[in-house]
Specification:
Elements: H1 2-31, E1 41-46, H2 53-68, E2 72-77, H3 82-90, E3 96-100, H4 101-109, E4 118-134, E5 149-151, H5 158-169, E6 179-181, H6 188-194, E7 199-204, H7 209-217, E8 220-222, H8 227-234, E9 244-248, H9 254-257, E10 262-274, H10 279-291, H11 293-297, H12 321-329
Parallel strand pairs: 1-2, 1-3, 5-6, 5-7
Antiparallel strand pairs: 3-10, 4-7, 4-8, 4-10, 9-10
């Protein structure tokens, strides 16, 4: 009898081991292109300002790349933001970057050198336009910025692009009707706290580290950007069509919003590369971006919104061949 039980136990153990190998095989299929060694070499990744989400996300992506492609060296380059990022990839100053769709479209519509070689890798997450003022400010709408000192973002940033368009939609000339400051999320919060400016624009994923730090030392609030202003934005044509009316979630900055969502504008962020970047490398990069979502999302909330079902929608850019290869490989 004991031999019977022994044989049954051995059979179950073998069945369990076989099942484990199947699960492991499926896991390896998800993680790695079977039969391929990971790409090696060096790539340059353009991020953003030090206190922004692009930089935080880029740093954590670099760790994920190192895990999946240990012989690949990833050099991060900080930047003013989307406009500079797009230009860098287009002219070969970077191989990959994150940029807002409106900045990509603006670059393309300008027929700028290298624009035709830009390609999408993945749609990532949305940027929210955040217009910040002190709690006791008399600014209640974008139109109230007339005559005020306003930080509209660095010249080559995506923030500047959006701020200029939002101001124009509200009937404000950014060069004449306000005192503009070229400060972004690195310097704007500090200037607001000191009283050197009356308001500042920021466009980024939520929450943004720079605003979280400001919330620890200053009571501020967000000025709503309502849907009627978005309609006026769309009337500007061109890249403005990538803006859409939305609400910044009440959970973005709980201590500031007090459970209230803020009407504002959103624009999609894209992971961008070029046609001449190695397709196998791009396939691996795409795979890592998708599969690292949950790990990175624990630290960078915006990364939680990366979704395989929507990642392929990189309008205005077509997908790079390596990204196409990855999405086809995981298609049900």
């Amino acid at each position: 009898m004991s031999n019977v039980f022994h044989r049954i136990g051995r059979r179950r153990a073998l069945q369990g081991a076989a099942a484990g190998l199947v699960v492991l095989g499926l896991l390896l299929w998800w993680l790695l292109p079977l039969g391929e060694d990971p790409p090696s070499g060096t790539i340059k990744f353009s991020t953003g300002t030090k206190a922004g989400v692009y930089q935080d996300y880029g740093e954590r992506l670099r760790k994920a790349f190192r895990r999946d492609m240990p012989d690949l060296t990833v050099t991060l380059r900080t930047s003013d933001g989307s406009q500079e990022n797009v230009r860098r990839v287009a002219n070969g100053g970077a191989d990959f970057t994150i940029a807002a769709a409106d900045a990509v479209a603006t670059y393309e519509l300008g027929h700028t050198p290298g624009a035709g070689h830009l390609r999408g890798v993945a749609r990532l997450y949305d940027d929210y336009v955040q217009l910040v003022v002190p709690r006791d400010s008399d600014i209640r709408s974008v139109a109230d910025l007339r005559g005020k000192r306003v930080a509209v973002g660095p010249t080559r940033s995506g923030v500047r692009l959006i701020a200029d368009r939002v101001l124009k939609a509200a009937g404000i000339d950014a060069r004449k009707d306000i005192t503009p400051f070229a400060d972004g999320i690195d310097d704007g919060p500090g200037k607001l706290k000191k009283g050197d400016i009356d308001a500042f624009f920021w466009s980024g994923g939520v929450p943004t580290r720079g605003l979280e730090k400001l919330a620890d030392g200053l009571t501020f609030r967000f000025v709503p950007i309502k849907a009627d202003l978005v309609a006026k934005l769309h009337a500007q044509g061109g890249a403005a069509r990538y803006y859409r009316a939305t609400n910044m979630p009440e959970s973005a900055y709980p201590s500031i919003q007090n459970g209230i969502a803020v009407p504002t504008i959103a624009v999609a962020n894209l992971l961008v590369t070029r046609t001449d970047v190695d397709t196998r490398l791009t396939e691996w990069v795409t795979r890592t971006v998708i599969r690292s979502r949950d790990i990175i999302g624990k630290r960078v909330h915006s990364a939680q919104l990366v979704d395989l079902r929507t990642a392929i929608y990189t309008d205005p850019l077509p997908l790079q061949e390596g990204a196409k290869r990855y999405y086809r490989s995981v298609k049900p």
